[in-house]
Design a protein that fits this description.
mainly beta, six-stranded mixed beta sheet, five-stranded mixed beta sheet, disordered N terminus
Length: 297
């Protein structure tokens, strides 16, 4: 099985293995709280968060990471069946830097940060919930947008997080695009017996699948990289059909690398602070075609 096939399978698993669902009720006036329930792929409500509320929610979508019982031999608990991602669209004029969600929990459950904490939703936000039986569940604010704002105002930053090893990539502090709903990253692990060529499975190769907000033109995307100190982007490889186009570059720090068609694979080669090379393969699609945002009436 070649890398391209694996990357496509990973994207299919991302989009079909979990479910998108939230239900919404309440008034959408700016000063009125709007509550959503977090639903799993079977349209069953999350038993621990009774409701998640903010003033001005217009649309909401949730994603539950599915367990992969046999994927590359990893046990299911390493694939976080209790992990959730939440995507919101807010009314025009909402200040994303100062939002205090009201989170109603089931009896016996606790959450950090606590309900009512004022948070900057332009940054990565993660809640850790402890269930009554002592286990934990993670909730990630994957993205939050404001109606009518420019793409720049709706820039969403994600970290490159390995679903294989549960680690955060140290080279890319954050990767930003307007409209990211979900980012799933796979770090290729070394497999000494795979075809007798373990270097083909180098841990220095990443595959990142991006699901974008409804209406995103994935053929014209301008990402921004926030690179760790000493890290440089030295080459960009763009595949169009069976042809590959390479461009030698030298980016560091906050790097605006230009516009690309992310419906085709875009590969960025980085040189790390210790001189090693790391390759990142990106692919993005518009998830609007998969159905409405509220799909569990």
């Amino acid at each position: 099985m070649n890398r391209k096939t694996i990357k496509i399978l990973a994207l299919i698993a991302l989009l079909t293995g979990g479910g998108f669902a939230c239900t919404k009720d309440g008034n959408t006036d700016d000063d009125k709280m709007v509550s959503i329930k977090i639903l799993n792929p079977s349209c069953e409500a999350d038993p621990y968060i009774v409701s998640f509320a903010l003033p001005g929610i217009v649309e909401a979508r949730c994603y539950q990471s599915p367990p992969y019982h046999s994927y590359r031999g990893f046990p299911p608990e390493e694939w976080g069946p209790n992990d959730w991602s939440i995507h919101l669209v807010m009314k025009k004029g909402t200040d994303r830097t100062k939002l205090a969600p009201v989170i109603t929990l089931a009896p016996g459950a606790t959450i950090t940060p606590e309900s009512g904490t004022v948070l900057d939703f332009t940054k990565n936000i993660e809640w850790t919930l402890k269930t009554p039986d002592g286990s934990t569940a993670k909730y990630y604010m994957a993205s939050i947008f404001v109606e009518g704002d420019t793409d720049k105002a709706n820039m969403v930053s994600v970290k490159i997080h390995s679903r294989n090893t549960d680690t955060v990539d140290p080279n890319i502090v954050s990767f930003s695009l307007p409209g990211i709903v979900i980012a799933t990253s796979f770090e290729y692990l070394p497999y000494p017996n795979y075809g007798g060529v373990p270097e083909l499975w180098s841990p220095h190769v990443w595959s990142i699948s991006l699901a974008m907000a409804k209406g995103t033109d994935c053929t014209k995307i301008s990402p921004i990289f926030n690179l760790a100190p000493g890290v440089r982007i030295t080459e960009i490889i763009h595949s169009i059909g069976d042809q590959y186009f390479s461009k030698q570059v030298n980016y560091s720090g906050i790097a605006e690398v230009g516009e690309f068609d992310f419906t085709k694979q875009v590969e960025f080669l980085l040189i790390t602070s210790d001189g090693s090379t790391v390759s990142y393969h990106f692919l993005a699609i518009d998830i609007g075609a998969l159905g409405p945002y509220v799909n569990c009436p």
